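Homework help board

Subject: predicted structure for assignment chain

Our instructor gave us this sequence and asked us to write out the predicted structure in token form, then describe one feature. I got the tokens but I'm not sure how to describe them. Can anyone check?
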Amino acid sequence: MIVAISATGCGVSGTPTAGELDLRRLDTGPYPIEPIETGAEYDHSMLGGRLLAGMRLADNVVTGSVIDPALTYGSADLIPDAAWVHNYMTEANRTVLERNRYLYGVVAGSTNNKSYDVFVNYAADDDLAALARRKNPAFISTFIMQFPDATAATRAAAELEETDFQVAADGNQRVPLAKHQEAHTHWRPGVPTIGSAAAHGSYVVYLNIGLGDPNLDRLAELTEKTYDAQFALLDKLPALSPKEVLRLDNDPQDILRRVLNPGRSVSPSAIDFFSYGPTGFLNWTRSLRGLRDTFAAVGADRFGVGWGTIAIRTRDADAARALAPKLLQPPGIEVVATDAPPNIPGGGCVENRSELLRPKRFSCTVPYHRYVAMVESNQIVDVHQKVAAQYALFANSE
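My token output:
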């Protein structure tokens, strides 16, 4: 249903409000402006359930900056099946997951170097002379997996670390952790990284941690600190049975139906249709990690992500309006002002100059009641159409 709404929302006492905004007059281009449930409903599937379980888990994966404040860059990914681990693990490790009936998982990484791929342990592949000649980035890469039971998880943790150890068995050394003797840990002297795996109930925590220099004491300290923080989060998250995975709701927080969705997706996707709470979102986002404290201040509690769009639920309308301009220029992102979207109350746009962290040329934001969205595109006309469509979608989702 197309609606007409106030262009400014509730006005301050004594101040007249603008007239009604007719959504039919907005240039929304080819983009849909009705919530997805008007076209189709989510059909429960095992793949969809594993993705939803991963989103649930992502909100309980410790962010690297909690362990070391210098680790301000990074990203995360949902891993709903063992076949998806090829970017993060060896083929031998993939067979370990399959053999132990891996259910789902999340990989998250943080680093102090915005150009570094935190999921590739380059240092482990270089000779010692090459490592000594350069300054290596610091990083923490965490892969949290769930298995059907504690027995399978315990076996998988031991097998994963043993598989990694055997890659360079002549040079690797076991590393006992005083605080976590159940963990299977190793390093190669002279290489500034450490690998470890430990079971925690039905979960496995699989870590790769690196520093600028090969300091074993510091590597072990970071590993133990990461386990401490991660196990505390997992203690709050009951493991799921396969039946519970299958029955997970697609949009329990009512955020995905409000996200601009050009493909009219109804099933979750690891790439372009998913939602997180604050921790999961901060693990995933590359460009907005510097807004951790801002998100907390405005009560941002749910984040929906579509293709080129992020929708955020805040405490109230004032909080949404306060957050909108900060999304456009978070710490570490260089931008210049550009034309605001026409006829969109509170809308604003910038041209991005930080291609590595924000590859699209233009970004625009729009607040609507307690929600705010940011859309991106390489074309100014297209980004204006997107933000208009997102505004209309917000209105039609009420």
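Reply (TA_rk): Your tokens look well-formed. For the description, you could write something like this. The longest strand covers residues 104-111. That's the kind of observation they're looking for.
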